[in-house]
Design goal:
- The chain is an alpha/beta fold and 241 residues long.
- The protein has a single domain, classed as Spore Coat Polysaccharide Biosynthesis Protein SpsA, Chain A, CATH 3.90.550.10.
- The protein contains 9 helices and 10 strands.
- The strands form 2 sheets. An 8-stranded mixed sheet has the order 3-2-1-4-7-6-8-10, sandwiched between helices. Strands 5-9 form a two-stranded antiparallel ribbon.
- Helix 2 links the parallel strand 2 and strand 3.
- Helix 1 runs parallel beside helix 2 and helix 7 packs parallel to helix 9.
- It is globular and about 55 Å long.
- The two termini are 28 Å apart.
Length: 241
């Protein structure tokens, strides 16, 4: 069975529709909403929808809320979803969690469908960023605390899943949308949050794929002092429909 975890901050308008397909899903054992210091009634709306709510006094950021949800979860397979998505369906959930339940993948990520086919094809060459993902608790625990910060977490999960030797897969979820930050928070505040998110992604990409990858490469050149690690496993996307 799977524990679903939804980090949420001021998402009362969309949280109910995210919870609904998870609560009725046969593979989902529990739905945990981590209310990350919301001021708009997100926690109350989530409880009314039937989720278990963990409330935090202040806003600690996405990764911190995810970590709090993991500590509360009782299962070893975790499904994360953003709280501001629109159009999440039971079929989408099944497509993301089943490859991990089967043991074929350690992590599987659902990417929101782009309007252009060619933009979707770029997923083979660009970082895999998606809030809807299933993974084992072992992968989560393998990520050092230093990388569990804000929006850095998705890049960190990608890297350490492969570094642990776990297969990672992706699928495009056509019909899944998201309420953009500029619409939720107002243009300027939303733009500022978007810039912070991009900054987080760039920072962790440099720290992991620049600094850390170099350290690991140098360690492999000195096997007498290095601890052997498994070879990175490739990302295996779904075959074209």
């Amino acid at each position: 069975m799977v524990s679903a975890i939804i980090p949420a901050y001021d998402e009362c308008r969309t949280i109910g529709a995210v919870i609904a397909p998870l609560l009725g899903h046969p593979l989902i054992d529990e739905v945990i909403v981590v209310d990350d210091g919301s001021r708009d009634g997100t926690a109350e709306r989530a409880r009314a929808a039937g989720a278990t709510v963990v409330t935090r006094a202040g806003n600690g950021g996405k990764a911190s809320a995810m970590a709090r949800g993991v500590r509360a979860a009782r299962n070893d397979i975790l499904f994360f979803s953003d709280a501001d998505v629109v159009g999440l369906t039971p079929d989408m959930i099944t497509r993301v969690v089943t490859p991990v339940i089967s043991g074929r993948y350690g992590m599987y990520v659902g990417i929101r469908g782009r309007k252009s086919y060619w933009v979707n094809r770029l997923l083979h060459f660009t970082p895999v960023l998606g809030g809807e993902r299933a993974l084992t608790r072992a992968i989560w625990n393998h990520v050092p605390r230093a990388y569990k910060k804000n929006f850095q977490i998705e890049i960190a999960l990608n890297f350490f899943a492969k570094h642990l030797g776990q297969h990672m897969g992706i699928t495009v979820l056509h019909g899944l949308g998201q309420v953009i930050k500029e619409k939720k928070r107002g243009f300027w505040r939303g733009l500022w949050q978007r810039m912070r998110m991009i900054g987080d992604i760039l920072l962790v990409s440099f720290r992991i794929y620049g600094v850390l990858q170099l350290k690991l490469w140098l360690a492999r050149l000195t096997p007498s002092t290095a601890t052997p690690s498994r070879r990175d496993a490739p990302v295996r996307p779904d075959p074209p429909a």
